[in-house]
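Section 3.1: Structural characterization of target chains.
Under the original work plan, the team committed to producing a structural model for every single-chain target entering the pipeline before any wet-lab resources were allocated. The record below documents one such target. The sequence was received from the expression subgroup and is listed exactly as submitted; it comprises 301 residues.
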Amino acid sequence: MSSWRGIEEFLAVVEHGSFTAAGEELSVSKSYVSKTVQELEERLGVQLLTRTTRRLSLTSAGQSFHKECAELHKRLGDLEKRIGRYRTDPVGRLRIGLSDTFGSDFMSRLLAEFSDEHPAIVVEPIAYLDESDVAQEQFDIVIRYGTLTDSNLRARMFGYLSYCLCASPAYVAKHGWPADSAALTGRECLTDRSGTMTFNENVTVKVTPRWISNSGIALRSAVRKGLGIASLPVSVIRQDLVDGTILALEEEWSFYDKPCWVVYSPGIMSAATRAFIDYLIRRTTRTKIRPAMAPQLLKRF
């Protein structure tokens, strides 16, 4: 039995002066109020109220108990109001999982801007390498890419992580671009640990990589050095494309567009989570990004 049972009724009786008035205030019967207060007294082992046919009065123990309970009741009401702010106001901590392989640099810039707009929210970005290792319940939000395998997740798509084939100017001058995806098998390729390159229309090519890394930043460095050709997100190499230190192939077959999702757990959404999702949708588009759009990306992010 709850230790709070009967206290609400006891406080109402004292405040309104009778069991009948207390029942009306709480929308319950007079007999229910009388019974729960009596049970409270029996549980405590003391008399709280002196009952006569004409009036009710507090005993000495009742006065002491009422004072403490009234203070607890007020504190509980204040606590409910403070906690309620998490539903109505963008406050508190927001823990966000970001892919460290491709996108933490890009998304971190957005997070910094969001944090600047919402100083009452403590933003905590946590980088992950493998989405399969991410426990959704440990985060308020997780940024995921590609097909969502868990149908129980709540998610909104906010754009694409668009990959392009890229290489250094020196590499292109020496080797040229591949004519199609099949031609990559004879090239010096730079890939993630899968040793594959994927393109739209579900085309995946198995290659023999010269350089393997689970870091998009490391692969970008290898591309800059002229070690080979890679498929990297335009968002990761946007500055290099503008500077000319990396070139991209502008052929439709060479692109790969992975949907970007902001994923959040079921249940009542906090105002901070709602504010970030709204911000992300506002700041991004559902446009598939192409290398020629790199200057626009730099201006926006």
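Residues 48 and 63 are 8 Å apart (CA to CA).
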